[in-house]
Amino acid sequence: MLRATKHIAHRDTTKRVNYLCHKIVVSTNSQYSTLNYRYGGASSNQQQQGHGNGGKHHYYRHDFLAPHGPKAWTIPPNRGYGMVVVRILRGALKLRYLLLGGAIGGGMTLNKKYEDWKDGLPDLKWLEEALPQGEKWSQFSKTLIEIGGAVKDVIEIAKDDLKAKTTVAALSLSQDDSRRKYETLQSQVETLQTEIMNVQIKYQKELEKMEKENRELRQQFLILKQQKKTGTKKIKKSLIDMYSEVLDELSGYDTSYSMADHLPRVVVVGDQSSGKTSVLESIAKARIFPRGSGEMMTRAPVKVTLAEGPYHVAQFRDSEREYDLTKESDLAELRREVEFRMRASVRGGKTVSNEVISMTVKGPGLQRMVLVDLPGIISTMTVDMASDTKDSIHQMTKHYMSNPNAIILCIQDGSVDAERSNVTDLVMQCDPLGRRTIFVLTKVDLAEELADPDRIRKILSGKLFPMKALGYYAVVTGRGRKDDSIEAIRQYEEDFFKNSKLFQRRGVIMPHQVTSRNLSLAVSDRFWKMVRETIEQQADAFKATRFNLETEWKNNFPRLRESGRDELFDKAKGEILDEVVTLSQISAKKWEEALNDKLWDKLSNYVFENIYLPAAQSDSFNTMVDIKLRQWAEQALPAKSVEAGWETLQKEFITLMEKAKKSPDHDDIFDNLKAAVVDESIRRHSWEDKAIDMLRVIQLNTLEDRFVHDKSEWDQAVKFLETSVKAKLAQTEETLSEMFGPGQFTRITHWKSLTEDQNKRRYVKNELDKILKNDDKHMPTLSYDELTTVRKNLQRENIEVDTDYIRQTWFPVYRRHFLKQALQRANDCRKAYYLYSQQGTDCDINCNDVVLFWRIQQVIRVTANALRQQVINREARRLDKEIKEVLDEFSEDEEKKAHLLTGKRVTLAEELIKVRQIQEKLEEFINSLNQEK
Q1: Please, are residues 66 and 21 in contact by the beta-carbon 8 Å criterion?
Q2: How far is CA 401 from CA 121, 264, 407, 436, 758, in A?
Q3: Do residues 629 and 703 lie in contact, with contact meaning Cβ atoms separated by under 8 Å?
Q4: Strand partners, 307
Q5: pLDDT tens digit string along 5-42?
Q6: What SS3 state is found at 473?
Q7: 519/582 same-domain check
C-alpha cells in the first residue's frame, strides 16, 4: 500500500512539472504564444497545418524537451536560453517533490513499524497485579509441569501402541513372508525411534526455553517484590549454599569420614585425560578449569558447589571477588587462579596435594549439587613427578569414595580400550554393588569411529565391565578444541546424538542415556535423594556428639565458658595491648632511675678498663681523661646508650607482664602466647637511627664541662665514685677468692681445702704483696726485673711458674690495691670541695678521680633524660605498633595459634564449638529442606 501511495504521488508530481514546463516555454516564445498545449497531445494549429499523419501526430513532453528524429521540433537558436532555464527548473522541482514523497513514504513506514513493535511488546501491567500475590506464578509452573507430563505420556503411549501393533502384526503373518514383513516393521521401528528421539530433543529444547523464561520472570518478580518491601533485608541462602557450608565446616572436623561426616557429595573419578574435568565443565556450563597438553593439571581436590542463580558467576570460598563466566577475560583469570592455587597447595616436592580448593558456580539452569573433582588416576609416572604420586592419587581417590554416601561419578574414556581402564577396579572395591555409582562414557564421537559398536552398547548396558552402577550414560565433551565454548560443545553433542547411527540402531540404549544435560539431571536427582535419606541420621549423630562433649566440659570446667582459640587469642591480645598502655603510666622519675642504672651497668666496665685505669697510669691524668672521653663520646657511647635504653624498655615491659601474672584474674593459658608475642616484638623493634646522632651531640657538649659547680654535685660525685669503686672492688674480691681459695676460717668451718693451683697462686701473691708494700704508688704493670725476682724467689720454694702466670696473678692483686687507694682518695676528697673551688686542679689533695666521675655522672644523667623522652614520646608507641603487627600475623596463622594455645581446655572447647556449629547448620538446612518439600 505504501509503495502504491509513493507511485501515485510521484506520478502526480511529474504531471505538475510537465505542465509548468509547457507554460514556461509558451510564455517565453512569442512566435508560438498562441499555441495551447495539452499534456500528451498536439496543438490545434499543428492539426490544421497537417503535420504528421493527417494532423494526428502526438508530441510528448520528452520529444518537446529533447527533440530528435524527423518529427522533432526545431527550436530557434535565439530561444536556447529559455530552454536551459526550463531544464534547470524542471530538475529542481522534480528533486524537491521526490524528496518530499520519499519523506512522506518513509514516515508512514516508520510509523507502521513502530505500531507493530509496540503491539508486540509484552504487557507489563501484570507485574502490578502480581506483586501482592504469588498464586499466578504457582499456577504457571504447575501448568508447565502438566504440559511436560502430557507430552511424555503421549510419547510413552505411542511407544506402547507401536510395540503392540508390531507384535500383533508379527503373529498374524504367515511363516513364508514373516521374515520380509518383520524386516519392514523393524525398519519402521527404527524410523519411529528416530522420530521419538527428535521429538524428545525438540520437547527438551522447548521445555528449556519455557523454564528459562519462567526463571527470568520469576527473578524479576522477586527483585521487584524485594524492592517494594525493604532494600535492607538479607536474601535467604539457597539450600545448596547451606549444604555446602555444612560440608566446609566438616572438612576440617572429620577428614577421614570415620566419625560423623557421611554426608553425600558427588566424587568425580577417572583415569588421567579421560575427560572428567570436561564432564564437570559441561555440568557447570563453563570452562572453569585450566588445560594442558597431556600434562597433569588437576593436582588437588576441587569442590565445586553448583547453584541456580540469575547470573552465571563463580567465586572462591575465601574470596569476595566474583568472576563473570559470560566474559572470556574473567574465565581466563579464573582458570589462572585455579592453576595458581593448585600449584601453591603442592609443597615439599609433592606432585599432588590433599588441600581442598572450594568454589561456587551459580547460573541459570544449573542443577544444584556439590561435586569434587579429583586428580586423574595414572598407571605410569614421569620423571618430573614425585615417587609417591601414583600411590597418593590412589589413596586420595579411595579416601573420598570411602564415604558410604558419596556418589561416585565414574568417568571412562570411550575412545580407548576398556581393558586399559584403571578406575573401574578401584570403584568396584569401594562400591561393589553399584548402589551409588553412575558410569559415564566420554568421547563417544571418537568411539564411533574407532571402537566396535557392539562393545559400546555392551558398556552402556552394563554387560562389559563387571562393575555395577545405578545408570550408564554417554556424553560428548567437545571436539578437541580448547577455544570451543560450552554452547558450541552442547550443540555439537546434540547434533552427534541426533545423527549418529550408533545410537539410532536397535539396542538397549535409550534417549535418556545420552547428553550431558540428562547426565546432570540424573546426578542431581540422585544427589538430593541421598541427601534426604541421610541428613536426619547425620543430624542425630552430631546431636549425640554435642551432648557428650557438653557433659565432659561441665565435669572438667564447671565454672568456665567454652572459648575457642580465636576467642582466647582475642582476649590475650587485649591483655597484651593493655600492658603496653601501662608503659605510659610509668613516672618520669622511675624511667630515669631505671635508665641511670642500666646505663651505668652497660658503661661501668668501659669507664674503669678504658678510661680510669689507663689515665691513672699516665703522668697527665686530666689530659688522658679528656682524650679518652672524647673518643668514647664520638664512637661507642651513643650506640651503647641506645642499647641501654632499649633494654630498659624491654625490662620494664616484661616486668609489667610478670606483675600481671600475679593478678587474681590471671589465666595461665595465655602465658606461652604472651611470651612469644613479646619476644617477637622485641626482636623486630629497633631504636630510631636519628637518636644516636642526637645523643652524640648532647654527650659531647656535656663532657666539655670540667668544673663541679656546687657542693651538692661534689657530694653526689664522691658518693658515685665510692659506690662504683666498692662495686668494682667486690667483683675483684670474688675473682681473688676463686683464684686463691677460701680463707683459713672458711676452710675450717666448711671443711674445705686448697687446690694445688690455689696454693701456688698464694705463694705468687705473697711475693707481689711485697712489691706493692715497698712501692705504694707502683705502676699497673711489672717490669722485667720484678718478674725475674718473683720467679727466682718462688724457685727457692720449689715452685716453678712462668712470667704469664705471674702477670695473671698480678692483675687482680694490683686492681684491689688500686681500688683501695681510690676509696681512700674519695674519702679524703669528701670535704675538700672548698679547696677545689678555690684552687681548681692545683688543689693540694688529688681529687681528679671525683671530677672524672662527676663528668661521667653528668653525661649519664643527660643521656637518661634524653632516652626517657624518646621512650615516652616515640619508642613506646613504636613498640605498641610492633606488638599489634605481630598479633595480627599470629591471628592469621592457625598453626601458630594451635601451638601457643594448647591444653585440654582449648581442644575440648574447640571441638565442642565446631560440633555445635555443624549441628546448628544441619538443623537449619533440614528445616529449609522440609519447607521446600
Answers
A1: no
A2: 53, 10, 8, 10, 79
A3: yes
A4: 362
A5: 444 444 454 444 444 444 444 444 433 333 333 333 43
A6: strand
A7: no
Cα–chain center distance at 363: 22
Cβ neighbors of 581 (< 8 A, separation 6 or more) are 880
The rounded distance, in Å, linking the Cα atoms of 32 and 99 is: 34
- The three-state secondary structure class of 718 is helix
| pLDDT recorded at residue 438 | 92
Residue 299 backbone dihedrals phi, psi, to 5 degrees: -110, -5
Please measure the distance between the N-terminal and C-terminal CA atoms of the chain and give it in whole angstroms.
59
Distance CA 813, CA 781 (A): 11
Coil, strand or helix: which one is 226? helix
For cell 609417591, the residue is: 388
Contacts of 656 (CB under 8 A, 6+ apart): 579, 582, 583
What is the pLDDT, as a whole number, of residue 600?
A: 92
Cβ count within 10 A of residue 486? 21
Is residue 918 a part of any domain in this protein? no
Residue given cell 578401584 in the structure block:
426
The cell for 798 is: 720449689
Return the bridge partners of 357, or none: 302
Which region, left, alpha or beta, applies to residue 816 given φ > 0 means left and ψ of -120 to 50 means alpha? alpha
Residues 791-805 as b/e (b if ≥16 CB within 10 A, e otherwise) read beebeeeeeebeeeb
DSSP-derived letter for residue 610 is I
**Total domains, the chain:** 2
What whole-number distance in Å separates Cα of residue 33 and Cα of residue 27?
Answer: 6
Spatial CB neighbours of 694, under 8 Å, sequence gap ≥ 6: 866
Q: Tell me the one-letter amino acid at 136.
A: K
Residue 502, in any domain of the structure? yes
Written as one letter, the residue type at 410 is C
Query: d(Cα 651, Cα 636) in Å, to the nearest integer?
Result: 22
Q: According to the model, what pLDDT value does residue 738 have?
A: 87
The distance of Cα 505 from the centroid of its chain, to the nearest Å, equals: 52
- Tell me whether residue 276 is exposed, middle or buried, using C-beta atoms within 10 angstroms of its C-beta: 0 to 12, 13 to 18, 19 or more: buried
**Residues 743 and 614 grouped into a single domain:** yes
- Within 662-755, residue ranges assigned H as helices are 671-684, 690-703, 711-740, 744-750
The Cα–Cα gap between 42 and 828 comes to 160
Its domain, for residue 721, covers 578-891
Residue 688 domain flag: yes
List CB contacts of 836: < 8 A, sequence separation 6 or more: 708, 714, 829, 843, 845, 847
- Give kind and range of the element (H or E) at residue 180: helix 178-229
Exposure pattern of 328-346 as b/e (b: 16+ CB <10 Å)?
A: eebbeebbebbbebbeebe
State which residues of the chain have pLDDT below 50.
1-11, 13-78, 97, 99-100, 114, 117, 121, 124, 126-133, 166, 168-171, 173, 227-235, 256-258, 506-508
272, 377 in Cβ contact below 8 A? Answer: yes
Residues 860, 768 within the same domain: yes
Q: Which of 296, 473, 461, 481 is nearest to 390 (CA)?
A: 296
Tell me what pLDDT residue 627 has.
Answer: 92
Can you read off the three cell numbers belonging to residue 478?
567437545
pLDDT at 34: 36
Q: Are residues 465 and 584 in the same domain?
A: no
SS3 assignment, position 297? coil
Residue whose cell numbers read 636519628: 690
Give the integer Cα–Cα distance in Å for 512 and 489: 18
Question: What strands, in cross-sheet order, belong to the sheet with 313-316?
Answer: 323-324, 313-316, 357-363, 302-308, 369-373, 266-270, 407-413, 437-442, 471-474
Give the chain's length: 933
What was the pLDDT predicted at 267?
92
How much is the pLDDT for 320?
Answer: 85
What CA–CA distance (Å, rounded) separates 721 from 853?
Answer: 6
d(CA 490, CA 496): 10
Do 771 and 642 lie in one domain? The reply is yes
Residues 605 and 745 in one domain: yes
CB atoms within 10 A of CB 783: 11
